[in-house]
Amino acid sequence: MKTFGEYLKGQGASDELYSVLMTLKDASSEISEAVRVADKGEAGTENIYGEQQLAIDVLSDKILQGMMKGNSFVGVIASEELPDEMSVGDGEYGVCYDPLDGYSLVDVNLAVGSIFGIYKTKSFVGVKGDEQLASMIAVYGPSTTLILTVGKGVVKFMMDDDGEFILREDEIRVDEGKMFAPGNLRACASRQDYFDLVSFWCKEKYTLRYSGGMVPDINQILLKGKGIFSYPGYGDVPDGKLRLLFECAPMSFLMEQAGGASTDGKIRIMDKEVERLDQRTPIFIGSKDEVKRCEEYLSS
Ligand code: AHM
Ligand code: MG
To answer: Is residue 151 very low, low, confident or very high in pLDDT (cuts 50, 70, 90)?
Structure first.
């Protein structure tokens, strides 16, 4: 049974990428423990989006920031919880992250997770998702798992009793199948196209699997090997809520590497250039045919 480190070595990861990913793996262990035992109340602060922060959001961000600063291969970091990107040294690697996605799920004890994108860059402004060298999600649920791509398919690790991450699935694939995770259904009130798309899924008797957390929802599509997650915009929020850099690009890298696809309705998410760190994008992500169907419904 391969460990996380053994898998990376086997894939021929450079010493630098190996080190950065090992640090993110260790940070995920710490956040996992923090999610289990730490204060779940509000921190009394707001992030740059004006959203209330939880004490655990702040703590997760601190854990990552400290560990990234301690890795000499990392030169710049960006966090969904920070106002700007931060130079942390001379390293060639840039690591962006949502330290704890799923704000509204923490107090009710549903699964939450972290999202990581790894680039070789000195700044995230101007990058495209396509430039990622690796992306990873950590899922903090009944077990702690990591879903990783280094551009050679998608694999899953599970934390064992000794805190070691062991390879559990080595060829995650997403094909066709009737499962849907329709986010932002509020958009149906004003968007006939989205209403029609969701109606199609309902009429075709798709299985609803939506938790309200992008990490567990996409994790589910990857592990069940089928389905579609959608989060459109509407009205005053035409780009929806989810961020291109911190959430959508890393998820899209994983999904494409698993044989799926992702789009904003017109443009492939991985082709979209990050103009601002807080840039949002609509997203439709899952199996190829489902993503194509979304594009067809939304352009009609
Ligand atoms: P967060 O980063 O503030 O936690 O928000 C992101 C989350 C996603 O995990 C989820 O898909 C989405 O927000 C759900 O939003 P809403 O319930 O507002 O539609
Ligand atoms: Mg988030």
So the answer is: very high
